[in-house]
Design goal:
Elements lengths: L17 E11 L2 E7 L5 E6 L4 H7 L5 E5 L2 E4 L11 E5 L4 E5 L35 E14 L5 E8 L5 E7 L8 H6 L5 E13 L4 E6 L6 E3 L4 H12 L26 H6 L10 E10 L6 E4 L8 E3 L2 E3 L10 E11 L4 E7 H8 L3 H8 L8 H5 L5 E7 L9 E8 L51
Parallel strand pairs: 3-6, 10-12, 19-21
Antiparallel strand pairs: 1-2, 1-4, 2-3, 4-7, 5-6, 8-9, 8-11, 9-10, 11-12, 11-13, 14-18, 14-20, 15-18, 16-17, 18-19, 20-21
InterPro entries: NA-bd_OB-fold, Rep_factor-A_C
Protein name: Replication factor A C-terminal domain-containing protein
Organism: Ambrosia artemisiifolia (Common ragweed)
């Protein structure tokens, strides 16, 4: 029995007694699914018919060890495959399930993490012919969590991760998986917080301006914070020691958890200097202002509400080439501007969310108020010229003949500074205290915040 292991199981073979630990479970088409692992760290999927679900729910406790026998060895499932094992095992009421003491050395987790650079190869479109699609395990440092909704108002949690190689990527956790995202475990985790996701789908979002990788959950997805496995520990140590970036880490960012708007703070001069060093995909912040707008660039575009394509206003109505006669397009900001700080100027594109925050009005409302001329800039755009703001930016494609262009996807508005008015001679002299606004360190946190607000854990410090 001790010599039989998960790797010995092949489809249509006879069963043999094997000691395994049940480490995950989920439902697929009402059937119960498990991932079990042997003492060597190898895993295989186990399936239970829905008629036997209650039997196994009572018999098996997750993270406990059992000796299995009289199971059925079959082909790995064609739809949700959690790893590359060619076989799976089917458990029924005739299967022998005998509890056994769990040795301390018995593995607790199973992951097969995919490097960021290999993610494009894991999309369904890039799978070799006649090869079944295998779901992806991924790990990275937690940056932000944002409750969101799709265009069809399907709720999900957007989790932003930074890869050890530098790029960021979003993971969409659908509603059925949210109970496995333990908010309290996230709040209690020591920073830097490394998050491991299992059984994700990889896709490429083909937007009008850029294409980007994205991950999304499946029924088999599980979430782990700072998992105690060697690969995650190595990654965590590298983030903690600050050697994951080609650009030097923000001073102090490894000793305290900075607010999102303060992370990876750089000057424009620094960003331009390191532009060609493979930092594409990294997210930086910068305090800068708009100097002017790029001539000849439209300040918005019209997108299709049903797909990422641009729409065109024809005699028949709005059309994108795929969806015919749309009642209205989706108006999206795309503002090209010259920006500067006290070190250097450069060019950047403000995308929809950032521009809406900057201007205080949604793009559609701006168009309705100031007209549809895409090349005539509305007055509110001139009003913000010269105002310092915190920009969250990434390296992006150049515009026209410019050589250094950034995309700005988020703007952080600073609270107004309250300046004391000197008292007149007829007034009593009193000290004027600036208004104190609640900060993320002092304000009470909600477990689920409103859409578009950050929900990343902040470290607590003793007074």
């Amino acid at each position: 029995m001790d010599d039989f292991r998960v790797t010995s199981i092949v489809p249509d073979s006879d069963s043999a007694p094997i000691t395994v630990r049940f480490i995950r479970k989920w439902l697929r088409n009402n059937n119960l699914c498990y991932v079990v692992i042997d003492k060597y760290g190898d895993a295989i999927q186990a399936d239970v018919h829905y008629l036997d679900k209650d039997f196994f729910e009572k018999k098996v406790t997750l993270l406990s060890c059992y000796i299995l026998d009289n199971y059925i060895c079959t082909e790995a499932p064609a739809s949700v495959r959690v790893n590359a094992h060619p076989a799976s095992i089917h458990l029924g009421t005739t299967t022998s399930v005998t509890p056994t003491p769990t040795p301390e050395t018995f593995p607790l987790h199973y992951f097969n993490f995919c490097p960021y650079a290999d993610l494009p190869l894991r999309t369904e479109e890039n799978q070799p012919p006649n090869q079944l699609y295998i779901l992806t395990d991924y790990v990275g440092r937690l940056e932000d969590t944002t409750p969101s909704n799709t265009k069809k108002m399907r709720p999900y949690l957007r989790v932003t991760l930074t890869d050890i190689s530098g790029p960021t990527i979003d993971v969409a956790l659908w509603e059925d998986v949210l109970p496995r995202f333990d908010k309290q475990a996230m709040l209690d985790a020591e920073e830097p917080i490394i998050v491991a996701f299992t059984s994700l789908k990889v896709s490429i979002f083909k937007g009008y301006v850029v294409e980007k990788l994205q991950l999304s959950s499946t029924a088999a997805t599980h979430v782990y914070f700072n998992p105690c496995v060697e690969s995650a520990t190595v990654i965590r140590n590298r983030f903690r020691d600050g050697d994951q970036h080609l650009l030097p880490p923000t001073p102090g960012s490894q000793t305290q958890h900075l607010r999102v708007e303060d992370r990876n703070r750089r000057t424009i001069s620094e960003l331009l200097h390191h532009q060609s060093e493979g930092n594409q995909g990294q997210v930086f912040t910068c305090v800068a202002s708009i100097k002017s707008y790029i001539k000849g660039r439209p300040w918005y575009y019209t997108g299709c509400p049903h797909c990422p394509r641009q729409t065109y206003n024809t005699k028949q109505g709005w059309r994108c080439g795929t969806h015919e006669i749309l009642p209205d397009p989706k108006f999206m900001y795309c503002i090209g501007a010259d920006i500067e700080d006290n070190t250097a100027p450069t060019t950047a594109t403000f995308f929809d969310d950032a521009a809406a925050t900057l201007l205080g009005i949604q793009c559609k409302d701006m168009v309705l108020k100031y007209g549809m001329d895409r090349y005539r800039l509305p007055k509110p755009m001139y009003d913000v010229i010269g105002n310092d703001m915190i920009m969250q930016l990434q390296y992006a494609r150049s515009i026209g003949n410019t050589s250094s262009v950034f995309s700005i996807n988020k703007i952080f508005v600073r609270p107004p500074t309250m300046i004391a008015t000197p008292p007149s001679p007829s007034q009593e002299t009193t000290s004027t205290v600036p208004q104190l606004l609640p900060t993320k360190a002092t304000a009470k946190r909600q477990l689920y915040q409103q859409e578009g607000t950050s929900d990343t854990k902040q470290r607590r410090f003793k007074d």
